[in-house]
Amino acid sequence: MTPRQHSFRQRTRLGTAALSLCLASTSLVQAQTQSGQSNDVMVVFDASGSMWGQVDGTAKVEIAQDVFADLSEEWQRNRQAVGLIAYGHRRRGDCSDIEVLAQPSVEGSASLAQIVSSLSPRGKTPLSQAVRTAAEQMLYTENAATVVLLSDGIETCDLDPCAVGAELESLGFDFTAHVIGFDIREEADRAQLQCLADTTGGTYMDARDAATLSTALAQATGGADPRLAPEVKITTTATKITVEIADGTARPAFVTLSAINAKTGERRDLGRLEGADQVITGLTFDLPQGDWVFMAEGDGGTGETTARLTEATQEIPIPFAANTGAFEVISANSFTVDETIAFQLRSLEPLQQNATYSVMLFPRGATTFDENITFSYRFGTDPETTDHAFYPWEFDLPTGDYEIVIMGDSYDLGDHLGRFPVQLVETLEVAETQASVPAADDTTPPPSFGFSQIAEPLSPGSQNAFLIDGPVAPGDQAMLIGLEGQDIQVVEVPDDGVVSLPAQIVAGTYRVQLVRPDGTDFHLGLIDALPETAQDIGDHSEGGEPADTMLSAQELAAETGPQELGFDPWKTCEEAVACRVEDRRVGLEWMLPAGWAAEEPFYYTTAGGAQADHPTMQMARASGGAFSITLNPRQWDVMLGPCEDVASGLLCREASDVLKDQTDYEMIRNSLNGDFPKPDGWLPIGRSWTIEDRALGARVGLIKLDEPDDRAETVSASIRLDNPEQFGLGDTSIVQTELGLIWDQNLLVNAIDGEIRFEDGALFVLLARPGGWDGTQDVWVGTISNPANHRAVLVNLY
């Protein structure tokens, strides 16, 4: 058997009968030994950070270390030469963190357990380059080489496992990669790992626990043929454990899960849910069937439920509730008008890390949220700031009675978590005098006033801006208190109560109060003063010299250069073209334009304590001009810009007539509705493509593919061969067939493979994008082969 002929014994997806007969009683490693080839094996060990994830309450890395301890003794007894490469164990975020720890040798096999036990997962998953490194260490272009990859996740660096597998297969003398997927839960992740095995003629095996991992690793490195091994029976029930969050409780930052067998009293520590991903989706555990008590505890809350596990049990929700918070304010009762209102906030109970609290200042007796003067917003707590949180507020406020109000995730003052009175006075002596004088028995009710905005919109100098409806008296003034740091403006109130805005007022939000000559005041409402229109700003004379009101060079750079984002970026598109983003936790997929950033989508809790129906997310351009879009905003002022319905809720954007802003918005909107643009060369469609023999430069034939739906498993194809005798065939007709599709994590087709049946035989096709594909090349590479006679051609498709 020649090296090239041997490479086509690896098309296990075709189920070649000859292959099954050849390997019916011996393993791959044993077969190579009998034929005089090397039986060396290089194991590639996943030591990325995700290996700290747990299976049945035990870290995956610890399970793998125990399995290596057992198998290394067996390798030594069987005189099996096994080497070791690890990745992700030295540095975080480094795709080059790949280390050759041991070359394959009989003597060194016994020491592998000790080496693996010293590994501490921390980094990324450059599995493709690690497999390539293993092949190079074994001189795969000159010798038969077998690599066994153990991974608990997909590639997280730049390479494509399918393409690397095809490269190693085409260049290798006799290269095979077996892949063991440890605790792989997503079908798409499994498909990527399986593609690496398939393209090299290896076998993909799932491992869910220590027993199945041991079996798979033993088979792949020299035991029974993994492709012929019987399926391991799992006697336990795989059940997802989730946390059902009660009304009024924030999503916990972490929860420790445990279970007690109601019959035997056996207690199992199932592990810890940590971070939004795990807390929202839960984790799957294998437990014996029967009655169990499940418990959740952590982050200020607890929960418990009893459930019977059967074969049909798929999910166990544990109800989880935490305290809503109780506080005290440590401060003086009175402050003078010229000093800072300063106080300390102390919690009387443990608080959840993700709980939302607002500390607000209101006029005494306020009944609506909009009456707030200022507030400090807190998301998350910790022991240091929870016990002694300091709040200094410095406002030019009139004398009077106020309240410090603690609010949770609500806009209803009736849901407050504490109201504490404070007083502003001219001097502290006045406060003491007022406190010592009994209140007069005055049953006269205070006057009431209505408030309504007349002009729309308001801007500096707006005439007849708003109406104060009530018993207006001579000397009454309307005080406009800026809530964004603007100077206070005072306007005389005419007898008819119709008030105009002063021309010098600065744009922003203002609280309006009616102030009487005797010092009494009444809160009326809020107004928004907008900037002057664009045509009123600057000097537009033909001279072209900007007036003082135009943007300076520094201001222009700040407006069009890097932008300050109002959120923590979760995903940033740093490519020259738009990026496709997916968050499986919340079921969102969308396009992020080049230069844009997005926060991590989340479900907020409504004022009533219920979880929102759709996820919320902010997106904004990180550079090149400020522009932002929000999916399902918690609050949105129509003055900011328009909103429209999309498949995942409500999409709102800033008002803009800039073409670039509108184009970016349309891309995001369309993608949220399922309409994704495709880069050039993403799939050979739209015309007949030339199949070229890479070695001879001659045309082999033509192929045409129909455009598939997203995630479709197959694609319709038509193929015609120019010279079928090249493959030992005689059929020159056009053949219709279905080829398989392998998608990558960006939902682009990674590889195309399958069988094409002619009247007198069949060909196997494997096509992949070339290495370093940049989203624009219209070239694919691969092989076309006849497994029956081992005739094959390396091809280009263009």
Largest sheet: 8 strands, antiparallel, barrel
Radius of gyration: 35 Å
Strand content: 35-45%
Helix/sheet category: alpha+beta
Notes on the protein architecture:
This protein has 798 residues and is of the alpha+beta class. It is 17% helix and 35% strand. The chain is built from 14 helices and 46 strands. The chain has an eight-stranded antiparallel beta barrel with strand order 39-40-41-42-43-44-45-46. Strands 11-10-13-14-15-9-12 form a seven-stranded mixed β-sheet, with helices on one face. Strand 14 (301-309) and strand 15 form a beta hairpin. The longest helix is centred in the N-terminal third of the chain and has 18 residues, at 60-77. The radius of gyration is 35 Å and the shape is elongated.
Topology:
Layout: H1 3-7, H2 17-22, H3 28-34, E1 41-46, E2 54-55, E3 58-59, H4 60-77, E4 82-87, E5 98-105, H5 112-117, H6 127-137, E6 144-151, H7 161-171, E7 174-182, H8 187-199, E8 204-207, H9 210-221, E9 237-245, E10 254-261, E11 267-274, H10 275-281, E12 283-287, E13 290-298, E14 301-309, E15 315-322, E16 327-330, E17 334-336, E18 341-347, E19 356-363, E20 374-379, H11 383-387, E21 389-393, E22 400-407, E23 418-425, H12 428-436, E24 450-453, E25 466-469, E26 477-482, E27 489-492, E28 498-499, E29 508-515, E30 521-529, H13 553-560, E31 571-572, E32 579-583, E33 588-592, E34 596-598, E35 617-621, E36 628-631, E37 643-646, E38 649-653, H14 659-672, E39 689-693, E40 699-705, E41 714-721, E42 735-743, E43 749-758, E44 761-768, E45 780-786, E46 791-797
Parallel strand pairs: 1-4, 1-6, 6-7, 7-8, 9-15, 17-23
Antiparallel strand pairs: 2-3, 4-5, 9-12, 10-11, 10-13, 13-14, 14-15, 16-18, 18-21, 19-20, 19-22, 22-23, 24-25, 25-28, 26-27, 26-29, 29-30, 31-34, 32-33, 34-35, 35-36, 36-38, 37-38, 39-40, 39-46, 40-41, 41-42, 42-43, 43-44, 44-45, 45-46
Helix pairs in contact: 4-9, 6-7, 7-8
